[in-house]
Amino acid sequence: MTLRPTFATMERAAIDALLARHVVARLAYTHRDRVDIEPIHYVYVDGWLYLRTQPGTKLSTLIHNPWVALEIDEVRALYDWESVVVRGRLQLLDDGPHDAARTRYRVAVEAIRTLVPEAFTADDPTPGRVIVCALYVDDVEGRRATPAGVA
User: Fold this and answer.
1) Tens digit of each residue's pLDDT (9 = 90 or more) over 141-150
2) Please, which pLDDT band fits residue 95 given cuts at 50, 70 and 90?
3) pTM to 2 decimal places
4) pLDDT at residue 1 tops 60
5) H-type alpha helices, the chain
6) What ranges do the domains of the chain cover?
7) pLDDT attached to residue 2
8) CB 3 within 8 A of CB 149
9) Distance CA 75, CA 96 (A)
10) What whole-number distance in Å separates Cα of residue 141 and Cα of residue 10?
């Protein structure tokens, strides 16, 4: 008899742990009748994903249609993996005049600097990435596969 893998829904604590362990996601977005997906760095802090990007086609699209999905996977083997999808409205942040927006922007910059300490300085390894974004992790789901015989 062949044992079959088990597929299950992840609990929120396991989802949060996976998001915190990783720093690269795939960002999916749409523009008219086209769906695109691109890798992007992120930092997960207190229920928020913080990202940065640069001006270009992706940003132009996101300004007009900010609804996105991010997928983060941890794959160990064919039937030994976890996958999380976060859906929501990507918020563009800036250091503008409103206190709440300015505070969220500063939190995002500090979070990004935990990943790339030189971010937004003269030594920034990706100086073109000046656009800061945030996505609140509310609409989220996670799935996992467990190999046969593993609890």
Assistant:
1) 999 999 986 6
2) confident
3) 0.90
4) no
5) 12-21, 57-64, 99-115
6) 6-140
7) 64
8) yes
9) 40
10) 7
Beta carbons of 20 and 142 less than 8 angstroms apart: no
Q: If you compute the radius of gyration of the chain from its CA atoms, what whole number of angstroms results? A: 17
Structure tokens at 123: 């030594």
Q: What is the DSSP letter of 121?
A: S
Q: What is the CATH number of domain 6-140?
A: 2.30.110.10
Amino acid identity at 128:
G
Give the closest residue to 132 by CA, choosing from 85, 103, 16: 103
With 0-12 CB in 10 A as exposed, 13-18 as middle and 19+ as buried, what is 22?
middle
End-to-end CA distance of the chain: 18
Tokens at 70, concatenated: 């991010």
List Cβ<8 Å contacts ≥24 apart for 2-9: 2/148, 3/148, 3/149, 4/148, 5/79, 5/145, 5/146, 5/147, 5/148, 6/145, 6/146, 6/148, 6/150, 7/143, 7/144, 7/145, 7/146, 8/143, 8/144, 8/146, 9/141, 9/142, 9/143, 9/144
